[in-house]
Amino acid sequence: MPRSFLFVLFSLLSANANATNLIGLKITDFGIEGTHRQEERFGRLQIEVENNGTQTRSFTLKVYEAIMDADAMPASPVYLLPLTLQAREKRMIDVPLRIPNGRNNSVLYAEADNEAGAPIGIAARRFWRPAYGKVVGLFCGSEEICKAIRQTILFSGTPEEQTRKAQDLHLIQLRELPSVWWAYTALNDVVIAGPLTGITKEQTDALEAFTLRRGTLVLVDKEMGGISAKVGPFATSLASPSNGEPKPAGKGTLVRISSINSPDFSAYFRPYGFGSSTPAELQEQFSRYRMYAMKNPESSFAVWLQWRTATHFKFPGTLELVLWMTAYLVLMIAVNFLLLRKIGKPEYAWITIPLLSLVFSVALYLVSARNRPTEYGLDELRYYEFDGDNTLAIAQDHLQISAPHEGLVNFSVPREFVYNPPQEYQVDVAEMNREMRTGILTEIKLGETWESTDFLRMWSSDSLSFELVHRFPGSVMRESGNRLRNSTGVDFDDAVVVTGDTAYLLGQVPAGEIVDLNAAKKVPYREMAGHSLEGFDGSLDPPFATGETSSLEEHHPNGLWKHSGAASALQEAIRIWPIEGDKVFKQTKAVFLGHGKDVLPAGSLAGVSARRRSDAFYVVTYRDWK
Fold it and tell me: What CATH number has the domain spanning 134-289?
């Protein structure tokens, strides 16, 4: 009997046998309120776990997407969570599962295994259908408020606008605010129209992280019972008026509105129904409820920093190989045709040809492998982004693991990191197995740390990326007199502040220090930027949204900038920014770039000695700079 048939049968029976299993499992949600987006890399899988027995049990919870057309094999990394539950204890578990590609006949699958590996609990569920268009989450104080919000949003505007919103806009009610930021990946907007009394620090951080990562957070003062500067998201950023005008917050938007009955509320959401046929004068009338269009970075600042700081393998290039082959041919002709004929021993070619080929091959191998890795290497780059005085930073972590020979490598990072799986991960349904190749993680263990195993070929490297958020004790804050205070708790060994007309080279900035920009070394922006960089093709976008700049060919009028041992990676990054400072700093008026010690534990390799390098970069953007 096929394994997939047994799997389906067992899964269906498990839905009614939850209470009779030693460990009861129930998949309660995927995404948020059953909504997820196909284009996102990961979403929240929520599982209810209950110990039905009368004694404490330790077990491993196994979670993955199972492909029914491939004998229920995993289509995503298998998450393993070691758990211990007291008798009759019930717990909710959140797992950042990779979003399925939608092309597979798959189900969500969870299994509890005892120490012997035998299943003592099982649950499975079909995926919810993905959402398309714009998705808005509503957190309301009552059902009546949510109903009023739906009517206001969907029934405002002309009949054409109402039809367009009914087709493209999806409104879902949030029963609770998640405590993990990656639960919000399915949402474009979140409307808070209910009291936030009792909100936890984790829920606050999750809402702020959602906004900083390109979300829109709408805070409705009256329905929230008034906004306090001590409670709720962006407590330090609530000085803006409650008039519906959007305020940039990281890569996202923060909006305050006085009440759902306010004209500003319906006016803010009315442009959601605008289309190409909407009259220009009507769009202009509602323009204050929309931020002007900005150009988002096309190139990743963090990826460039990793390229600039990570270890690179040097193998012979095309020209060197051509020269070696030319030397080989010249040597063969000189020995086998000229020398042997001159001494009258052409028959010796039967010996000299294979001998010279062997010697030449060994020599070429030794020369080519002179820069090969002789030990395992772990290069790590952390990249933190702050928005002004806000102390919550969204961050990326990039790991590069290199190996001197083929094999499996065990590595770990802090538990709160969320893995960004590669898009090309897939199951070979025809062969019913996964191909062993670099970058495809088969199992991920979520214990005290995040652990996994990667397969590397000889003299190869693999890069893995993660996302995270971290709350700092402070930011790099602007003070009077053109001064900056470093309240992050980080000692910066190099720092730069850049505006549309000047770059301030600060050098070292210890934690707690106040820096006077007037006393710093200054370089005009048009001299600092506008270069091309040796070994790097193209232009590097700043790490924030900019105005429309000129074509790529016009970005580099200042010519080639060669690597210099005295120049930091931060300064080199600025060298290849577009030269038009007024357009680059259209919305963001200044940026602080710093390199310093990391605030979180570094990643590690298990069971092998390795060369390690860790870099941490910090970016703070300022909307107001006078």
Answer: 3.40.50
